[in-house]
Amino acid sequence: STIPTSVTEEQFNAHILPYLSTAKRGFVCQIPLYKVFNYILYRLHTGCQWRQLPIAPDPNDPKKEISWQAVYYHFRKWSADGSLERVWQASIQTVRADLDVSELNLDGSHALAKKGGESVAYQGRKRAKTSNILPLMDANGYILASTGIIAGNHHDAFNLKTHLQAAFKSMKRLGLTIAGAFFNADSAFDTREARQVCFNHGLIPNIAENKRNRKTPKRGRKRLFNAAVYKHRFATEHSFAWVDKFRALLIRFDRKDAHFLGAHHIAFAMINLRHVLAQKV
Predict the structure, then answer these.
(1) C-alpha distance from residue 210 to each of 116, 225, 245 (Å)
(2) Sign of CA dihedral 186, 189, 190, 193
(3) Global confidence as pTM
(4) What is the pLDDT of residues 205-252, one digit of tens each?
(5) Which of 26, 132, 133, 273 lies in the 20 to 30 Å Cα band around 266?
(6) Number of CB atoms found within 10 A of residue 94's CB
(7) Going by C-beta distance under 8 Å and a sequence separation of 6 or more, which residues neighbour residue 264?
(8) CB atoms < 10 A from the CB of 165, how many?
(9) How far apart are CA 106 and CA 226, in angstroms?
């Protein structure tokens, strides 16, 4: 299904609103929140500047129905207080019957960071300042866990043990049974710590061997590596192609990690809910 570029009010009330923080006193949004969310979605899909949002006019007033600053305010608030992460986590529960956790695929995605900011550093391979994020997907391309934002000067296996422990624990908290699953990752993630974390959580590390890690042939029993299962990692390419549809994520302009991560959480949720939101309400 096509990744949603907007949601109806009914879809918003069912899958998004219950997980967002809303004003209980003081400032209350002057238009329905589903419209605010759709403006945020528009910005993420098109990559336009916030001030360029095509905000509709107020039918009862010559002014626009809401300012772009108010839309940006909601995005920042929902990013910082965990609302958007809760929307993503809830999307995993919504599609739980469609998940295939017999295989889990890990890969990374670098984004150029034009304005610098938190967790931004020069990445030699890209010849630019970048940030990196490592999503973890099931066999069907649903995004089940992710690292935070990682500075581009770090290699993919940087702090991998901590990241994997957090990801596996997060999936278990959601009630997902991951024991016995193949953990597919390329040779950049071939570390002793990564394999040990997999074993500790009952997963089967199916990681391509990084020959640069070893000067002499490994002694003893050969590591398990299922080439046929490893080829299924192409599912990650579908997921990353879907993420790339959100043009605001291709080049990072958000200086704060929380905001850039919040934008990813929206993208992950829309990818997970792609079949659900395609249904007519």
Answers:
(1) 32, 12, 31
(2) negative
(3) 0.92
(4) 999 887 766 556 555 566 788 899 998 888 788 889 999 999 999 999
(5) 26
(6) 16
(7) 133, 146, 243, 249
(8) 14
(9) 16
